[in-house]
Amino acid sequence: MSSSFPTPKGVSEYVPPRADLFYAIRAAFAEQARLAGYGYLELAVFEDTNLFRRGVGESTDVVSKEMYTFEDRGGRSLTLRPEFTAGVLRSVLANGLHKQGALPVKVWTTGPAFRAERPQQGRYRQFYQLDLEAIGSDDPRVDAETIAIASRWYRSLGLTQIRLMLNSLGCRECRPAYRALLQEFLRGLDLDEPTRERIEINPLRVLDDKRPEVREQVAKAPLMADHLCDACQAHHDRVRELLADLGIEWEDSPTLVRGLDYYTRTTYEFEHPLLGAQSAIGGGGRYDGLSEDIGGPALPGIGFGLGLDRTILALEAEGTGFAAAPRCEVFGVALGEPAERRLFTMIDELRGAGVAADMAYGGKKLKGAMKDADRSGARYALILGERDIAAGSVQLKDLAGGDQTAVPLTELTATLKERLSR
Ligand code: AMP
Prior knowledge:
Elements: H1 18-35, E1 39-40, E2 46-48, H2 49-55, H3 61-65, E3 68-71, E4 77-80, H4 85-94, H5 97-100, E5 105-114, E6 126-135, H6 140-156, E7 163-168, H7 175-187, H8 193-201, H9 203-206, H10 212-218, H11 230-245, E8 251-252, E9 264-271, E10 280-286, H12 290-293, E11 301-307, H13 308-318, E12 330-334, H14 337-352, E13 357-359, H15 366-376, E14 380-384, H16 386-391, E15 393-398, E16 404-408, H17 412-420
Parallel strand pairs: 1-5, 7-8, 12-13, 12-14
Antiparallel strand pairs: 2-4, 3-4, 5-6, 6-11, 7-9, 9-10, 10-11, 14-15, 15-16
The chain binds adenosine monophosphate.
The site of adenosine monophosphate has 18 residues, from β6, β10, β11 and α13.
């Protein structure tokens, strides 16, 4: 019987064996981040609510409708992080990392983020991201580097169908004039009331509307790409040259905008065609004014948030074969108490030698213990009886093929390591 407490609504929760995969893809990312010189940051899960109001922006759905905000016992307003960038930047500033070494400060982090959304496949209230940020440089190479890290990670998982969509959102110099132009165009369209309100608050988001009747009307809207200032145009061209140098394919996506207000210049999204409505699997971009917005010094930055939940769904949809290392390679089955005692130390020694090993507990008889061995997913069973102890050997049974051989105890670890590496 399950307990009377179900998993809270909208929480994406992972249990083995899926959680082993979840952990393995995170570990694969940690390696990519290390190889590119990014240090690990363990970040606050909740922040002062004003950090998100000021950083992410009042006009975004994330801030206006989706935050989990609460008052603590001291009457402070706190919010469970709906995204990572604002918190990472806050932490870099609070810990003075930008004053300690060469810029950019390169950091990554991971964990749950929280948004009060209507839950569906690929959209949750507690979901998980990998977040990577480079803070303190406006060099377009850093933009391309972040894209290269994400691309290499997706490839390392065996994903082949990921598409990269790229755009530039301009900067605080060129965007206001474009925004006004776009608003003027949008006000002339036949749109419903909530969309008309959005024109006044966040007109770029209207370009991102997925409804066909809206898409049709905005098809002729002026595009940021045609109104970039010279500096933004040069930056964007350079990023594209660098991506080409790295052999990374992308599609120019002039209507790509993101749900968070802080983005400037380079903006990108990774999409996966097999994920249906939730096809955005990761996204990132530059946020050159964000540090000043939250009271810090001028520090341009760029980074991304990659959705772990959707990455797992994509792996399952593509069937790439990427798998976590097995939790059990060898399973011990003992016949009788003295054998059980001896086997317990053998299993411990195997673990010490780097072999994933487990055994039947609770004094199980041969049949029950062999069933456990089959269910464990192990490749080999190690069967030990009193006669084997007397002979100084153990029976090694190939669980898939069925052959069984006696192996001298002194050679067990070496034999197993050799066979498991085949
Ligand atoms: P964002 O911070 O909105 O740019 O999101 C970055 C990535 O996080 C997206 O591309 C998704 O993969 C993932 N993501 C965002 N919101 C959710 C959610 N509610 N449930 C699951 N994944 C999400």
